[in-house]
Amino acid sequence: MRLRERGFSRKINSNKLYKQNYLKISLLYILMKGLIYSITGYGLTYYGSTIQNLNDRKLSHKSTYKNRDKRCLCKSSLILQHGDEWTIQPVEELEFDDIDELRLKEYEYMKNNECVNKYILKTDEELREYKRVWAEKNRRAKGCKLKTEMTLTKDPDYSAKWSRNKRATETPEEKEERLKARREAYAKKPQTEEQKEKAKERARLQRERKRLGTTTQ
What we know:
single chain; mainly alpha; GIY-YIG endonuclease; three-stranded antiparallel β-sheet; 3 strands; 12% strand
């Protein structure tokens, strides 16, 4: 990609501007170089990617294994835990415009070679299928029905029965609170003129019934 496309002009108006752009370009090109590496030992292999010096990345793996929570260890720990008889070596150097290109290249090595890496990038279809299978296994392990089975065996009147049973056991205070919340939600809901007229008619009939009930008593 050309410098002009990256937002840097070829016209330099001052030494200060030249130095600023030169530093930006230098930093940009340093970050644009990456490395795919492997850690091998004890019959196991781990693949990783980095923009660091390989020796610095090696020290980082050692520090991570030594200091981090055992539940959050990098999968390279499956090799490091056996001892110090392991090696880290470069597999491929590449330049890239986006850090995702480096990660995709790392994914290719993970997918096409036997390794200890647990987190492997997946396509959208693979991810959906993985989640579906995991959810099915998880529900089976808990003794729950699958969604498809719940739909087939679901009682169509279950919600209505549950609501009636709940209303039958509620106290007067709970009933008043429920009706109040219902009236507030109804008042906020936009209504057509026809719906407003029906609501007024229902209110009028309720007042009429109450008046007749008090007079007969």
